Amino acid sequence: MQRVMIVGAGKGGTALLKRIVETNLMEVAAIVDKNVQAPGIKLAKKLGIETTTHWLPVIKKNINIIIEATGNNEVMKSLQKDKEPGMVIIPGAVAHLISELVEEKEVLIAKLKEETYKQQTIFNSTNDGMIVIDINEKIILFNKTAEKITGFPRTKAIGRNIIDVIPSSKLPRTLTTREVETNQEQVLENGLKIITTRIPMIDESGNLLGALALFKDITEVVNLAEEVTNLKEIQVLLESIIQSSEEAISVVDEEGRGILINRAYTKLTGLSEEQVLGKPATADISEGESMHMKVLQTRRAVRGVRMKVGPAKRDVIVNVAPVIVDGKLKGSVGVIQDVSEIQKLTTELNRARQIIRTLEAKYTFEDIIGVSEEMKMAIEQAKLGAKTPATVLLRGESGTGKELFAHAIHNASDRKYNKFIRVNCAAISESLLESELFGYEEGAFSGAKRGGKRGFFEEANNGSIFLDEIGELSANMQAKLLRVLQENEIVKVGGTKPLPVNVRVIAATNVNIEKAMAEGCFREDLYYRLNRYPISIPPLRDRKEDIPALCVRLISKLNQDYGRNIDTITQHALELLHQYNWPGNVRELENVLGRAIIFMDHHETMIEATHIPQLQVPLIDRKVQENGPFVHNNDETLADAVERVEAEVIKQSLEKHEYNRTQTAKALGISLRSLYYKMEKYNLANNSMQ
Hints:
Layout lengths: L2 E5 L3 H13 L3 E6 L6 H8 L3 E3 L3 H4 L5 E4 L4 H10 L5 E3 L1 H34 L3 E6 L4 E4 L1 H7 L3 H4 L4 H4 L5 H7 L3 E7 L5 E10 L5 E10 L1 H9 L3 H14 L3 E6 L4 E4 L1 H7 L3 H4 L8 E3 L3 H8 L3 E8 L4 E12 L2 E11 L1 H17 L16 H14 L5 E4 L6 H10 L8 E5 L5 H9 L17 H4 L4 E5 L6 H13 L1 E2 L8 E2 L3 E6 L3 H6 L5 H7 L2 E4 L10 H16 L5 E2 L1 H8 L6 H14 L7 E2 L11 H9 L10 H19 L4 H8 L3 H10 L3 H4 L2
Helix pairs in contact: 1-2, 1-5, 16-17, 23-25, 27-28, 28-29
């Protein structure tokens, strides 16, 4: 901003000072006058502007412009002599002329404002909406009626492009054509219908100045006209809308007979109009209950009901709503959606999840359900363990949720933004396990990838690795894992150079490691490395008070998996679940609920006791029921008694499944490798050959 010094604080200097301060275009650095009582000096002091009796001290303060307001030639000459290079001196005569011009401009502005106010009063008093735009399509007039009809604030409309305010406006076309358009119907963005006249504004010389629109709201008139429109025309209009929809739509009357279907419905179901119109609402259903009839009976809408329709038994989701006019039920409308596309997208999503499931942890402690004291204690231990870098050993029966705990521990640790790798040690053959865990160098063995391969530990660097079924590791792999835990480094298959890794190990097992260690099947030094922070997860039979909360969470999950809308489970059904001991734990509970939902009718929303499949009493419990409590030999230790019972159970299960090892392992809830080990241990392998 330019800095100004005014020389002369008389009438002219005072007027200039006022103008400059009001316009705020320049900064008044000082005002100079020998008369300290001059009006300009007094005004400057009030405004906090520097005053002085001589200009020399001020000139040195970066002054850009000097205004000589005294009219004295001697003063002018002295200023010319004393000014710094680059300074501009405006003579007093010019300054006075500028002041007079400013005053005249203000008078003209005041007159213009008065005229504009009169015009605005006239424009705003009319009942017609008025909008005027200039040749650049900018709004220069927007009266109150226009504001009321369009719903757009007048203050925000002025100066904006007409299309920004009314996208459907045709005023830009009027600027182009210069033609008058009278009584044109238009629908505004807020749904109001108007009749508008558009006029180009041209002066006497033929120059285009802008365009004017005059319009009235005719919505009420149109609404009245629509009420008396021929019913046949309305029906044709509605049919056109329904036929243009890509959603399959069917309409029935109050008696449940079809009165309208669209082309999308015919394409989806494979049924023609002759097969549906005039026929009962059940005519198109292959499997399931008619939702049209249910809505007509209850007068309530139904959403997301799954059923099969048409000869091809297409799997669909149905939404049906009642049609009520003046409180009277006139029929119902159903929208049918093909779920094949949804299933396709769901399949692709599941595939994507499978790809990334080894790279990230999906669950947190909020996903672990438990109100029992045993489960609360396990959760608290896991939360404490998550804050430390120590190796965690999760112990518990199959199906208790060890993997869920592993996910939660990773997500609660400071490694949660790094990878979470999951490895099932029992699912990978021993010959491949080493290369999968530690990777291999190029040419390490026949068929090795070019460039080698990164192992799970290298992938999990700076993150966590979850080693499930760690009790199934061979002695050789136990030794290699021990080195990783001790030295924090790995050696690839076929390599010699150790690679440092920073990996947090979370291990899990459902076998008795102490017993395996005593039998020489598990290394003692590895056991103490893994057992630094053990967490025992209680079986479901020891925390049955968690079953109701688990059922709520599992039903929600199963609804998503099976596309159902099951709301809850009855108290009687819960009592049945409480009576069972759940050898398969939470996994078995999920299977039982899933089986119940699969066999429920599509209209049922509550799991009853009748839906619960018959729960088989575990083999050991049957043994107890048949023979009474096991007789304990006083000379027999507890470990021997447990082994005797275990051998008998495995033998009976093998006989039941005709020595099919895969089915036997599945029935017993153990890995196939564990079954082979136990068969050899109890000399059951030889019996299978007989």
